[in-house]
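Supplementary Methods S3. Input chains for the assembly prediction are listed below.
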Amino acid sequence: MSGFFQQLINGLSIGSVYALMAVGYSLVYSIMNFSNFAHGGVIMIGAYIGFFAMTAFEMPFAVAFCLAAFGTGLLAVVIERVAYSPLRKRNAPFLYFIISAMGVSIFLENIIIASPIGPTFRTYPRVFGTTPFIVAGVNIGRLDVMMFVISAVSLALLIFIIEKTRTGMGIRASAYNLRASALMGVNTDRIILIVFGLGGLLAGIAGILFGMKYTVYPQIGNITLKSFIAAVFGGLGSLPGAVIGSILLGIIETFTSGYLSSQFRDLIAFVLLIFILVIRPRGLMGKTTEDKA
Amino acid sequence: MDWFYIKGILILSGINLMAVLGLSLLTGFTGLFSFGHAGFMAIGAYVTAMGTIKLGLPFVPALLLGATGAAMASFFIGRLTLNLKGDYFCIATLGFGEAIRLILDNVQYFGGARGWPGIPVSTNLTTVVILDIIGIAVLANLIRSRHGRNFKAIREEEMASQTIGINVFRYKMTALMISAAYAGIAGGLLGHYLGFLQPKMFQFVKSTELTITVIFGGLGSISGSVIGALVLTSLPELLRTFAIWRLVVYGAAVVFIMITRPQGLMGGYEITPTNIKKLFSRLPGSVGKKQAVGGDKK
Amino acid sequence: MKKRVVFLFVCVILTLGLTLAGCTPAPTDTAADTEPEVVKVGWIGSLTGDQAVWGTCELNTVKMLFDDINADGGLLGKQIEVIGYDTRGDATEAVNAVRRLTSQDKAVAVIGPNASGQAISISSVLEEMQVPDIATVATNPKVTIGEDGSIKPFNFRVCFIDPYQGAVAAGYAYDILGFRKAAVLYDVADDYSQGLTEFFEKYFIEKGGQIVAKEAFKFGDVDFRPQLSKIKDAGPEVIFMPYFFKEVALSSEQARQLGIDAVLMGGDGWPSEVLLEMAKDYVEGSYFVNHLDFDDPDVQDFKAAYTAKYNLPVELNGYLAYDAVQLLVHAIEKANSFDPVEIKDALETAQVKGITGQINISRETHNPEGKDAAIIKIVDGGYVFQQKYSAQ
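Predicted structure tokens for the full assembly:
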């Protein structure tokens, strides 16, 4: 039986990584209605910022953490200004946004490779200790607990901002209908910047945690494809959906790998994606989308 | 420059062109965006190889077999996904493209991830050029016909098209199947050019490259796709000395194009004798009326 | 209207300009001065992508060695220029690169690549242009032997092949270390990993061992705990991990964290300074099959020179690239000519003592036959040579 619980913990652990990344996707999608494929690149930059902060500048974890989060928040805003807002201004179809996002992601990945930073894999210093907790025969990594706590706190803060603050109200209104909100006096330009900034912040947190749990390399962005699937599964545009979708995906993946065959681990993610798109495209908790006639 | 080297680049451009032509019909003229066409290329490639190696067919029939295989797969995929709204269709094609690759990684009959070596090298420049010309001709005729107008109508305003009686689903499916067939032929040509097939040649990156090429050339323009395929295949080769920075420039260029000129090179314009004449008659300083179709009117 | 014309115009000019720029000869890397006759040797491999660390090391090594040769008066009196192209780890790019090397650049031979997928795809170009290639670390048997069993005339290599490596690993695990129950974790998306797994399994079972678990992951995965948990439940004595150092680092760490204390074992995808940096505690006490002993006295001069010149540690590929260069130089001297076909003929029976061992190219397989493998154990965060081992 410990095998089952161990796999469950494994699944939760993977799922929580996806969750942090997926929330960023959903957040941007809820306002802008497009899938920000540059998110992966931003996460990667976050991992690098945290790494260099902790090694080259020998800052303590908390400082590096904040630096990574704010650094990527800023980066996300810059990306929005440079790559997306010109398209928004002229009402370009969503495909152009996606292509632009891909261009950004290719650019980010390769500028790291081409720069002196190079393609080598970097390892974070082990701050939290490496011996895992053993609870009833099941190994739970220390870093996993830490990640869980940090993710939960970050998400709680995010939900607080969105539900309880005035800016949050602006965000919710814009998510419902961007044009109408603008007409009602919401400064949608600023809201968009804030949303991207928040998304970037989450990306930075995801990046530094991912880097600590695994390793830092320029292709981290590719992993985020799975979290994107999780976001779709949970319902693009819904934050709780992104979290639930991610956890579920992590668990399903793990159990498929554990009980069927590990060869199908990635395949199951895509099968799930196709399944949900065919059966219920808006995902578990997504908003119903109407066709814009 | 050495002809042997240039020949190689031309063959690759021609192969990419075939896939891009198909995608152009789907994306440029019908308005559906796919991020999974590398998957159709893969199916075409493997089925064609199966045709030449296991069934002993000559090259061109095997290519047609590959095209059919890809088209059939697209039929199945289309049934499931063509009713989805725009960006969800995108995501679905992405999913299918990757799923196809992952399945191929695991099927040992086709060599799995280790690849399938020993494929006869049957592709040469003549074959590629002839097939491309046929492909362009077929596509051009299709676009110019009543069906072509229907495709464009669907691209511009889907609901209105449905209202006036165009069977939107059937047209979308046709566009998808034709584009898949083209991609399948391209895949078959690629496999028989390298003499080797590996699923990782058909990744998500490849699908993205194809879509970017269509946009670069200009949506709704066949000549744009031709130029786009030629330029985007040969440019990385010419820039070989800048190896590491190649992709950095590529990424930046993609963003740049999207921001400044998303209608691409040709912007819906076609290079035809009539158009060239009109171009020359308009050049001396006058401001002509806009003739381009398509682009970012949405 | 005017804007479009200008835009088109600029594009055309750019394209023309780039074409012309592309026609100028590639920048010279080695000192090819006023000497009228410069002979070119090509190199291909990954300078970007996941294997970039190894590709860069190879190219550096090749350049360094030919720099030395040139300084010493050159080869057969001529200066050698090394032209290296990036394949991005992609088979199509490899074909393009070799086409350019053999036709445009007129290279007399090509060194590399370090991946079988690329090595296999370039064979038709090599045959068409009649230029030989010496692969450095491409271990799939099909690189030199075609599907129908015939030899590929222009492909050679200096490393041993997967069947051999798998047999060595299985033999060492069973006979020397005495393990009877093994588990395998492998990369289903990588041909190297699949090949090694296939042969390890075959030989281990032949000897009487038992594979208690066989789990797969896909390249790019970072979390192996689902698979490792399953492996742990099967209770193996040794876990075979035939893949590359990054995944080894991650999976070994996760294995230890899950409480697995079985011995870990791997192939030549392991050795890299990066592995020790990332995971030295977790791979402590592990074994792997290597091409050579890193502390072999014959090897130290090269190591020192490389580190002095490039300020980087030498990766495994460097040693094999070194031997590839040795082999090529030997063949050129034996043929006493720079004609690619004559070089190829000389290569078929070439014998040279490389730093990775005696390399005797066999005419039937174009592989170095009877090359010993070295077993390395990781002790105290360092690579410690155990013994040379040959599979029967």
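Chain B has a mean pLDDT of 84. The interface with chain A takes residues 33, 80-81, 84-88, 90-92, 95-96, 98-99, 102-103, 106, 159, 204, 208, 211-212, 215, 244-248, 250-256, 258-259, 262, 296, 298 of chain B (CB under 8 Å).
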